[in-house]
């Protein structure tokens, strides 16, 4: 049941992982890159991996872009999630693609059979065998949908496929990646967006069957701009007859530190505590509660990290350092070799939790709030 205030008015904030907020802010650069890719068959963003910690807005970004695409008459949009009720993301994709056609010859069973035949295919020179029957079915279907790219690089329609929470269906993604690579080689106008947690990137990079996706564009989501968050709070509360000053809205935004989930959580808690006016006392009381919730849920964001990756991340949190070199962590990780610490630091940099100006320069913590919550929850300080 969605949160209501005492007067029965529904909250405009959605503090739950994997949900799309009513107010979409930030991510303009990411949206623009994907928009350009729609019209450019050679864009690196034609296949894109979107990653970031839990609560950073991967689902929101996918939903925002696919909703925009659905408004275009020349784009067929297929959206699926490994966490959905669908028995198989492959069956779900096949059903949605077949629904776009008007030809009864294209039955779901034929497309699904093609996918499943790839699942069972043996590796031959590290590539999956594409069944001729599947190739013929897809060629006929895609020709009917008018997805063929002409010699001069033009196409009438685009098939856009988005897959969310892909780590839950990683084996099926191998099959989808194989199919997608075949479609590209056959010069069909297709675009693939895949979103998952940071550890998913490591799985892709270390799986030879996923080499095509490993070369895809990477979008690592980070914190939102504080000023954009403040503007959103100011507009949303005032629009709903909850007076809030610019000063209070900015204070709220600063407390979230740009963490998208914290933005929704704090907004929701302030909404339930305020009536006609949002005060600093409302904000401070709500923040105390949000801090406890964020601290208790912080480890969920790294629950599927490898053991050594978790150890290095927790060591950084214990150290309290915002900027450090690998050897600064040795005393906190006596059981790990220096080369392993360096390797995991590089992984954390790829996941967006650390930044580094140049090789061998100090690492800098990019998400300080997250580190503090790890410390608070596990009393590592």
Question: Order of SSEs, N→C?
Answer: HEHEHHEEHEHEHHEHHHHHEHEEH
Average predicted local confidence, pLDDT:
82
Low-pLDDT segments, ≥5 res: 1-8, 122-127
Oligomer description: single chain
Radius of gyration: 23 Å
Molecular shape: globular
Given the helix and strand composition, which structural class is it?
A: alpha/beta
Query: What profile does the largest beta sheet have?
Result: 5 strands, parallel
Please list the strands of the largest sheet in the order they lie side by side. 2-5-6-1-7
Distance between the first and last residues' Cα: 38 Å
The fraction of residues assigned to DSSP E strands is 5-15%
Task: Let me know the number of strands.
Answer: 10
Secondary-structure map:
Layout: H1 28-39, E1 47-51, H2 58-70, E2 75-81, H3 89-99, H4 108-120, E3 123-124, E4 127-128, H5 132-144, E5 158-164, H6 170-185, E6 190-196, H7 198-205, H8 211-214, E7 217-220, H9 226-239, H10 246-256, H11 260-273, H12 280-297, H13 307-319, E8 323-324, H14 338-350, E9 354-356, E10 363-365, H15 368-378
Parallel strand pairs: 1-6, 1-7, 2-5, 5-6
Antiparallel strand pairs: 3-4, 8-10, 9-10
Summarize this structure briefly:
The chain has 381 residues and is of the alpha/beta class. 48% of the residues lie in helices and 11% in strands. Helix 4 packs antiparallel against helix 5, helix 4 (108-120) packs across helix 6 (170-185) and helix 12 (280-297) packs across helix 15.
């Amino acid at each position: 049941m969605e949160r209501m205030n005492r007067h029965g008015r529904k909250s405009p904030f959605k503090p739950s992982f994997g949900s799309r907020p009513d107010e979409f802010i930030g991510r303009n650069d990411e949206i623009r890159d994907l928009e350009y890719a729609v019209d450019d068959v050679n864009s690196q963003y034609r296949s894109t991996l979107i990653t970031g910690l839990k609560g950073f807005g991967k689902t929101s970004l996918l939903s925002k872009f696919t909703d925009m695409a659905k408004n275009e008459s020349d784009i067929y949009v297929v959206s699926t999630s490994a966490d959905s009720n669908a028995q198989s993301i492959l069956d779900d994709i096949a059903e949605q693609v077949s629904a776009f056609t008007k030809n009864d010859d294209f039955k779901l069973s034929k497309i699904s059979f093609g996918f499943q035949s790839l699942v069972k295919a043996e590796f031959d020179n590290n590539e999956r065998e594409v069944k001729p029957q599947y190739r013929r079915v897809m060629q006929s279907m895609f020709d009917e949908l008018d997805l063929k790219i002409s010699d001069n690089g033009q196409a009438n329609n685009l098939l856009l496929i988005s897959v969310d929470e892909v780590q839950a269906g990683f084996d099926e993604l191998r099959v989808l990646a194989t199919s997608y690579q075949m479609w590209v080689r056959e010069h069909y106008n297709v675009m693939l967006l895949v979103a998952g947690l940071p550890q998913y990137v490591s799985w892709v990079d270390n799986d030879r069957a996923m080499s095509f996706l490993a070369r895809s564009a990477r979008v690592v989501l980070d914190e939102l701009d504080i000023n954009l968050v403040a503007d959103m709070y100011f507009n949303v509360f005032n629009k709903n007859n909850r007076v809030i000053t610019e000063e209070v809205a900015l204070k709220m935004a600063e407390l979230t530190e740009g963490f998208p989930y914290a933005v929704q959580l704090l907004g929701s808690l302030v909404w339930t505590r305020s009536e006609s006016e949002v005060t600093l006392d409302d904000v401070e009381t709500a923040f105390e509660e949000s801090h406890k919730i964020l601290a208790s849920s912080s480890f969920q964001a790294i629950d599927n990290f490898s053991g050594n990756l978790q150890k290095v991340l927790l060591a950084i949190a214990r150290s309290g350092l915002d900027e450090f070199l690998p050897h600064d962590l040795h005393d906190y990780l006596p059981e790990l070799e220096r080369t392993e610490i360096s390797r995991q630091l590089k992984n954390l940099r790829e996941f967006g939790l650390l930044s580094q100006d140049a090789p061998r320069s100090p690492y800098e913590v990019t998400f300080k709030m997250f580190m503090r919550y790890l410390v608070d929850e596990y009393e590592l300080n």
